[in-house]
Amino acid sequence: MPKITFNNRNHLFFQSVKNSVEAYFQNNRLKKTGNWELYLKALVLIPVGIATYIWLLTGNYSWPGGVLLSVFFGFTLVCIAFNVMHDACHGSYSGKKWVNEFMGLSMNVLGSNAFIWKIKHNIIHHTYTNIDGVDDDIANGPLLRQCITQKWIPIHRYQFIYMFLLYSVSTLAWMWGTDFYKYFSKKIHTTVIKKIDTGQHFMFWISKVLYIFFYVVVPIYFVGWQAWLTGFLILHMTMGLVLSIVFQLAHVVEKTSFDAVATDNKVIASEWAVHEVKTTADFAPGNKMICWLVGGLNFQIEHHLFPHISHVHYPALSRIIRRQCELFGLSYNYYPTLRQAIYSHISLMKQLGRNPQ
Questions:
Q1: Percent of the chain scored above 70 by pLDDT?
Q2: Nearest Cα to 331, choosing from 269, 257, 268, 272?
Q3: Cβ contacts of 52-57, under 8 Å, gap ≥ 24
Q4: Which segments of the protein form a coiled coil according to its record (predicted)?
Q5: pTM exceeding the 0.85 threshold for the entire prediction
């Protein structure tokens, strides 16, 4: 991986934002980690997920009911990922490290691996957001062109249509394909995983085995392979679509910017925090229901600047950061509604699908 550095010598913007945010927490005597609102989410979502899983195993429902239950189960698992796993893996769920580590393992329960995800997301994506050649989140294979520096092929003309099909199978590919590729190659896109200790090796394999047992073996035993396969595919289609759309709306929209690196070292002209503001967008900030369901991930600018602060504080931080952006002449990228953000993503993917020649 080429070396990428940011021009942080005059990090006036981030210093000003940090000072304002620190003053907010001190003046209101608040902790930066989760509070009762976050813990209530976990107390609601996790039991609901377990209850839905057990209900699906009973088989006491019609086939339309089974479809709806599978969709609901997938959506519940995604909400657990947004609201519990995400904060925990960033260390913002609790002030206690062991609690964060334990709750972060909900990623493994969902079928993936917290250790690999932390490197991919916390380190690579949060540091080199929207930098083609490094950010694994915009390196989704030859069928999707997500920035102008990526190679164009004729099929991209239709990517704004078929991308939703690819999104729907993304968690299947992630859990059964890319996780194993990253593990065996010890590489996440162009970044080398320097060390995987014995404990992480054990956790990787035991999690995959337990996932197969609880999500494949047990359901087949109770409801048969046909019902299991139908429900399993619907579950993952739901998870894949929701996860992909929420994360795409944060970075792959018309208002965000992109950069690229090839083989040579690169210096980004702006300070890191300015780069994050330019490459990130919020959506539906005034919709409390969406904010609750997606774990504050509609406040992506706030999350990227302060990933170690729990998402329950993001609505308040957004007002601070927006004022700071105005003071420093920076555009604060946001879309007032979910519909507008989705439209912008589709529009950008359509633009990127055109022949650049």
A1: 100
A2: 257
A3: 52/76, 56/219, 56/223, 56/231, 57/218, 57/219, 57/222, 57/223
A4: none
A5: yes
